[in-house]
């Protein structure tokens, strides 16, 4: 945008701010249905993507920054969704560490994974305005937010055809840059009001819930405590106009013996499961992480077979395009959540096998050609995936160290843990960084460029050396 356009946009935003009114185009959403899977004739198999006015989104971003500057310090640490410097891995790491500590000290954890029905679309706007005022958002800022919802309408666009406009009187605006911070503020109030004494205690911190936007995990040391916590949470949701989906919410107990956990919401019993996929990562009632790694490798292999038949196997596709598919599709599927992985020799071997299976297809080779893995990587100019994973784990370790106490997973970050735990893996990588490792100052790896596992590592600087040594006592897990 040139200077003239920027000047006009600034003037328009200032008029909207001072008048407390916005053009109707800024309040109009164009819903484009995107097919997910299943029967093409079933509406629920489509996801609606809402397109909004670009000038209106600029205005929404300005308001979002002002709202966040007010509410960010008030939102509790248990919420990691839509917050700067936090992501899904923070919440996954926290849950993994709590479960590891509980398993080590033979302490049970009762968990309820709560699913809210159409959470974004159910937020009552009147209740939302009251919540914002409680958090200190009022005056011109609140009026500006309300102006975006005054005459909120939408239409559906399919294959160039448009439906008639219809009013949208409840819920947050899909696609609006302001909606995420409004939603986590709304959820924070529900979480605060439902809190009681029921919790688990880990690293000196009482934890009763973990939230990532509308993905909620409630935790307690017994079934009765969890029922009390869930009852209050359900009541606060109902009072705020939200509803818990009893068919999608599930319970799980981490214990060395099988324990029943019959939780009720509105007279209905929630199903108890032995495993649950939380934020894309599988957690089990036995606390085993290898099941998730098996699932990752299986998902990546399924994608590889599909791509090999339809795309990668085509001879007319260039090697550069195949590598792009490898980096953008295959690797993210294979390595999602790798920050939690315990890198045993078996895990390293399986990851390397999965990596080379795809790279051989990229290079047009098979096992019968008997070409060494290192030669294939060198020919494709691809670094070992294990090296990439370990470098990423070290970056994650640094993220934990830099965060203040209880910044998501950081409240339990710098302590020595039992061998084989997630934290043990991170600290082992960290403490071994130095000369003679892939993280050394010259990127050296010892004799003939090989690491301890015998893998050939590149001679270029893989990552800067990490020097800080971490010390600390063993953390104690205890129920409360």
UniProtKB/TrEMBL annotation:
Signal peptide feature range: none
Please give the CDD domains that the UniProt record associates with this protein: RT_nLTR_like
Q: Which PROSITE patterns match?
A: RT_POL
Question: Domain of life of the organism in this record?
Answer: Eukaryota
Under the heading Pfam families, the entry gives: RVT_1
- Annotated region (Disordered) at 430-480
Q: Which residues belong to any copy of the Reverse transcriptase domain? A: 15-283
- Protein name as it appears in the record: Reverse transcriptase domain-containing protein
Q: Which organism is it from?
A: Nothobranchius furzeri (Turquoise killifish)
